[in-house]
Structure formats: structure tokens, C-alpha cells
Design goal:
It holds the Pfam family ABC_tran. 30% of the residues lie in helices and 27% in strands. By secondary structure, it is of the alpha/beta class. Helix 4 (116-128) crosses helix 5 (144-157). It binds adenosine-5'-triphosphate.
Amino acid sequence: MKTIINFKSEVPVAVVIRNLSAGYGRRTVLHGLDAHLPGPGVTAVVGPNGSGKSTLLAVLAGVVKPLSGAVSRDGGSRTGYVVQRSEAPDTLPITVRQTVAMGRWARRGAWRPLSRLDWAVVDACMVRLGIQELAGRQLGALSGGQRQRTLLAQGLAQEPDLLLLDEPATGLDVEAQQHISDVLDEMRANGTTVIHATHDLRMAERADHCLLLDQGRLAAEGTPSEVLSAQRVPPPTCGRA
Ligand SMILES: Nc1ncnc2c1ncn2[C@@H]1O[C@H](COP(=O)(O)OP(=O)(O)OP(=O)(O)O)[C@@H](O)[C@H]1O
């Protein structure tokens, strides 16, 4: 049964999803989603493997086009999108610092040299994610957790109004997950709208808002405690990482 818990009126809405359907080729994966996501704020998208979390983020990022319905945003135009670690190419011969610097391309253009300010932002993002010691290391030589933090630093370097993260903490140890949750809290405090897909219930509980997907449909929407407490969420899995 679909459960919608409305925001209190004073909570600003940053993203409105209206009757959204999307998929791949002839296959429809998301079916008629309606949701209101707060911003600044953190929304966690939860649900079993294959329920459509990554597809929803890809639609919000503009990578997958809706088959019908629409997504609208209130204010802001810069979107940062951090894909699942397993989707990121790790054979590219680039360093951690260069990877993070790619986050500046949307502002600067891929072929224009970065300014001193750009590099200052890149270095600050690496410090924030604790990867400054890895700056010269090749992306492909990193551990899973180090690569995850590098990708998140790239997302931060975009200085987005809307940050989309696909399972940012999957496969990380508790300390690293805690670190990433702290970074998300900071982003929210700085006025960013964050939407992340997660299998980690602790991360979901720290969000302001939660969507539960089940077979491409919105099974519940509300605060994390409202959505997660009814035991509608199956035990966490390892995801695809
Ligand atoms: N590029 C693609 N082409 C075709 N089908 C896809 C593609 N990406 C995902 N799908 C299918 O869409 C459905 C939803 O997948 P999606 O990755 O959005 O789910 P998810 O909830 O993120 O899963 P997980 O928790 O395993 O990451 C699945 O049945 C999947 O096989």
C-alpha cells in the first residue's frame, strides 16, 4: 500500500516529481512516481535490489529521459551526480587529484585550464574527504573506500545545489560511512539538497526525508522513522558493489 506523509507546511520543497515513469528501451522500470523532496535537506531513497533507485537518480540527473511525467526544481541549477563506485571506470590513467578536478569541468569547460580558485576548491574537497595524501595516486590503484571518497570529492567540487549520490557508502566500514554521513550533514547545512540511494539503514535514518521504492513504485514517502519503522524495508544487502 502506498503511504504518503505530507511535509509540514514550513518545510521548503526543492524537487517535485510528478507521475514519473521511466525505463530502458521498451522496459518501464519506474511507474508513476509522485514525490516532494525537501531542500535544503537530505532525502534517502531505499528499497530492495532492482527496485529502481539508480534509475530514479539517473532521471533526476537528466541521464535517463522520463517516458512520461516530469521532475521540476525550485531554485538552483547546478546538479552534481556521483554514480555507484562499480560504475566508475577504474582503468583510466588519471590521478585522484585529476579525478576530483573533473568536478570543475561543468563550470570551466572540459578543455579550458582550471583557475587557481578551481584548484583551491579541488584541494579543499580532497581535504574534506581525507584523501589529500592520495592526490598523486592512480584511481585504479585505490581501495574501494578510497575510490568512493574520491568520487564524492568530485561531486563536492562541482559545488552543486542538488547533489545526487548513488550508494555513496556501500561497502565502506562504519567509520568511513560515518564520515560520509557527516559530509552530507554539512552539505545540507550549507544549503544543498542531497538525494542519495542507500541500503544502509543508519544512513537512511539520518536523512530528513525518505522514499521507499518497491518494484519501481513508490511504496512509502515520509520521515525516515515513519518509512523505516513499519518494517517495510528488507534487511540491507550488499548492493551491486
Ligand atoms: N542500463 C540499463 N539497461 C536496462 N535495464 C536496466 C539498466 N539499468 C537498470 N536496469 C534495470 O532496471 C531495474 C531497476 O534497476 P536499478 O539499478 O534502478 O535498481 P536499484 O534499486 O538501484 O538496484 P540496486 O540496489 O541493485 O543498485 C532492474 O531490473 C535493472 O535490471
